[in-house]
Sequence to fold (252 residues):
Amino acid sequence: MFESDTPQNQSDALGWHWLVDFSQCTKIPSNPLVLEAIMVTAAEMAGATVVQSCFHQFSPFGLSGVVVIAESHLAAHTWPEHNAMCLDLFSCSDKIKAQVAIEFIASEIQAGKVSQRNVTRGELLK
Amino acid sequence: MFESDTPQNQSDALGWHWLVDFSQCTKIPSNPLVLEAIMVTAAEMAGATVVQSCFHQFSPFGLSGVVVIAESHLAAHTWPEHNAMCLDLFSCSDKIKAQVAIEFIASEIQAGKVSQRNVTRGELLK
Fold:
């Protein structure tokens, strides 16, 4: 179910960015507070330090939200009409256990399918 | 200086995600309000509808910030010690002029080099 890439050595990059597409989800939150709780919990389980968050409920449906962490951010957008959610987790620290966060979120929203890509960021410094 | 991919047909995806790494920057903001103004202006120039934003200043330096837009989000993280900034812009609408936003931000922070990738999101619905 989960595909992941191992982050490169930190000295080669400023950070790593996981792009995760969840589909066939049977428990997409409709309440922004619920999604926020899931995302903040996921960030903390991954070892991140939560700084701020902002979540928004669109009309007639759909949520967007971001959790700023000391190590960068998590962002999520839901498409309840498609039983889908897109998540991205950007971390500048190789201590962050991104897979823990991703698997927790997948479990909370009961995602039937998960597709993820890991992109190295800020490689220009090499 | 700018590399970009043309977004695929919207019916194939939930959205498009631009990952942009700016380096050799000579005007990285140190004030979160300045970065927020740049990001909100960039979003509006791209035709996005700004919903909320949250920006944070780290100690001793570095900023993180996110602008939630009706069409998803923009997020930026700065590394002043490396003259670098990483930006991501996720849009669920093919009306958003992402390149306009990216080029405006590059100009504001006086980026000497820009590397970008465009990732299609939510292709699982095909």
